[in-house]
Amino acid sequence: MAKLTSSELNKIAKEQSNVPSKVVKKAYKRYLTVSSTDDDIVKVSDFDRLPDLPSGSIMHHVIGKFAQLTGATTPAESPVDFGQLMGAVDRYVGATGDDKTDFLFSLWDCDDDGILNRGELYYMLRIFNGDGLTDDDVWKQVDLVLGERGVDVPGDTHRGLSRDVVKEMLEAASM
Q1: Which of 13, 40, 56, 164 is exposed most, by the fewest CB atoms within 10 A?
Q2: Whole-model pTM above 0.70?
Q3: What pLDDT score was predicted for residue 173?
Q4: Which residues share a beta bridge with 43?
Q5: CB-CB neighbours of 121 under 10 Å
Q6: Which residues pair with 142 in a beta bridge?
Q7: What would the 3-class secondary structure string for the chain be?
Q8: What is the crossing angle of helices 82-94 and 6-15, to 10°?
Q9: Residue 91: what pLDDT?
Q10: How remote is the C-alpha of 126 from its chain's centroid?
Q11: What is the pLDDT averaged over residues 146-165?
């Protein structure tokens, strides 16, 4: 897949009902900077090179979850189709209620066990808190959140937050 023409990019932008065209075009510019090849093909593994994103294994999981919204699969060396990726982002942005909660939960539940364990919660909080905190600070936040929810077992990776608890937390945060 070569670089998109202006008309191809405009077509993708018009297909999105929940993401403004301006955002699609800005996302495409960022998408092109990710490619590790001269032909502008972006692979899942290329996302590892972005300094402001989490570890490659987490990014592979996140890109894979977005790809699932379009029915695609994404092995590490497979190309990430920009149109499919934007279609998935558009579906997420347009989702409401339980659909959005389920998708957000699945992004961070890397082992698909229905629980955000201590490590998964760490990655989630690390992303949302940015670089302003040390790793130790983020781990303290993780233990605080788990302790507030009655999962006061630091270091126990088999306990965590269920989807329903995360839904409660999201609803409380949006009030």
Answers
A1: 164
A2: no
A3: 66
A4: 79
A5: 23
A6: none
A7: CCCCCHHHHHHHHHHCCCCCHHHHHHHHHHHHHHCCCCCCCCEHHHHHHCCCCCCHHHHHHHHHHHHHHCCCCCCCCCECCHHHHHHHHHHHHHCCHHHHHHHHHHHHCCCCCCEEEHHHHHHHHHHHHHHHCCHHHHHHHHHHHHHHCCCCCCCCCCCEEEHHHHHHHHHHHCC
A8: 20
A9: 82
A10: 13
A11: 71
From CA 54, how far away is CA 131, in angstroms rounded?
A: 11
How does pLDDT run across 11-26, given as a tens digit for each residue? 999 998 888 999 999 9
Q: What is the mean pLDDT of the chain?
A: 78
Please name the amino acid found at residue 85.
L
pLDDT in tens, 65-91: 776 766 666 666 677 788 888 888 888
**Single-letter code of the amino acid located at 152:** D
Residue type for position 108: W
Res 154 pLDDT > 70: no
Q: How far apart are CA 156 and CA 23, in angstroms?
A: 41
- With tokens 């389920």, the residue in question is 102
β-bridge mates for residue 161, sequence order: 116
